[in-house]
Specification:
Layout (H helix, E strand, L loop, with lengths): L1 E4 L1 H12 L5 H4 L4 H10 L1 E2 L12 E8 L8 E2 L6 H5 L5 E8 L5 E8 L5
Antiparallel strand pairs: 1-6, 2-3, 3-4, 3-5, 5-6
Bound molecules: zinc ion.
Length: about 120
């Protein structure tokens, strides 16, 4: 199992936004599908959105890999994370999405390393 944590990049992105190096539209660009998946399957986060400061932050995970749709399979309901991450070649992407301003950021990716 390998894991890549993107929290440092998230902090840098938010700092760039504060300094005006990034426009809000560049980071608050969650697609309709992503926002809907986050609304339906996502878990509410206790922290407020880092951009609009509304309590509208959700965390949702998608799985990519063999046998899964090319656009990814949303994790939830019958498809639980533990089942997916034990399958070779499946990678899991955990994303935070704000339902208010559409801020979205990849928090973490993990899964089995590709066989070398
Ligand atoms: Zn927001």
């Amino acid at each position: 199992m390998t894991s890549v944590d993107h929290r440092l990049l998230r902090r840098r992105t938010l700092r760039a936004l504060e300094r005006g190096l990034l426009a809000r539209e560049e980071v608050c660009d969650a697609s309709h599908e992503l926002a809907r998946a986050a609304d339906t399957f996502g878990a509410a986060l206790s922290s407020a959105c880092p951009v609009c400061h509304q309590p509208s932050l959700r965390e949702v995970a998608f799985a990519f890999g063999r046998g899964l749709p090319p656009q990814g399979q949303v994790v939830g309901g019958l498809l639980q994370e533990e089942q997916l991450t034990s399958v070779e070649g499946v990678r899991l992407f955990r994303v935070e999405v704000c339902l208010e301003c559409r801020w979205n950021f990849l928090l973490e990716e993990r899964g089995q390393a590709a066989p070398s």
